[in-house]
């Protein structure tokens, strides 16, 4: 049956992953069986490359060449679905990159990557279907052809027997095997999966699968239980450009610490805190505080060597106000590059990542240095959802 993904991988590694899964769950308990059609929230907390659910079937039992499922996400990048045979020697990985489906396939002596089809990260449910027709693998999106890949090997076709493994939300091979590297974490949901028409139950790696929100909108959602931390060294900063933060949100819906920057061995460089009761958003730098009404829609904060600029855009009044405060901080860039930025909470004393004053609410968009901030790249609490808010 050349129906199936064949692929491959470090046998040892795959075994290690599976074994390790078993250990974590302890004594075989806690490993739940779930149907392959379960709704799976792909950002559920775990090791970043580890699948949330997986299954193994005997290849001789497979009578279909098609897998189909629905996907909904605002996240441009992350792993969706994985399949392999021969214990990971032949493999298939479907992910998103820049919002576009990316397939990577290893079969015998062939290793390829193909990206194509429409951008899928628009927050709508899309139906994806992957099928295997001899030398061709076809990905269909919403009933239209997305990508077709043809592969011809010098090696003789062999009879495939043994087992097929499928996984959602992670892979069972080493990430170094792939041609195109990507950030695996995906804030998205998969549902209504039909996998090669198999009815075998899947094993869940987690106790309970998180539900998906009924409706979502773009943004980063904070439920008041945790926050996200970045090393500021990851942001590009040019000598004389200053440092620019820009936030868009309905601030009336937010309560708690939105942003803070903490320099090593120093206090906070600044904090931005919203208070739903007082309806005030407070920007604090050292002992100086700037108060804003929480009806603002956009806030721009820009540090440079000799000034601090605040631009506040109000929705109701349709007005923009600009405040420039003089600053004398020649070493601010050096300090900034060694600092830590938190979103949705305040970093505690010391270098650990204990936080407090967590944010509740949806932060629609944050840009740093003019680029969208991707919370998938942060060290973040599992309660923080990087690319979607409940709507
Ligand atoms: C797969 O099924 C075939 C035929 O039913 C059987 O002979 C073989 O042992 C099975 N293999 C595995 C790994 O279960
Ligand atoms: C799926 O499997 C069922 C039996 O489990 C079978 O009746 C049905 O025809 C199969 N569908 C396809 C498309 O192969
Ligand atoms: C920041 O960098 C340090 C040292 O390189 C590292 O241990 C830590 O995990 C990083 N923190 C984040 C939030 O990326
Ligand atoms: C912000 O949220 C409040 C409360 O839900 C709502 O009344 C208001 O219309 C929203 N503002 C904007 C600009 O969407």
UniProtKB/TrEMBL annotation:
Gene3D superfamilies tied to this protein: 2.60.120.200
Cell compartments where the protein resides: Secreted
SMART domains: LamG
Main localization (coarse): secreted
Transmembrane segments: none
Signal peptide coordinates: 1-21
Molecular function GO terms recorded: androgen binding; steroid binding
Function: Functions as an androgen transport protein, but may also be involved in receptor mediated processes. Each dimer binds one molecule of steroid. Specific for 5-alpha-dihydrotestosterone, testosterone, and 17-beta-estradiol. Regulates the plasma metabolic clearance rate of steroid hormones by controlling their plasma concentration.
Record-given protein name: Sex hormone-binding globulin
Gene designation: shbg
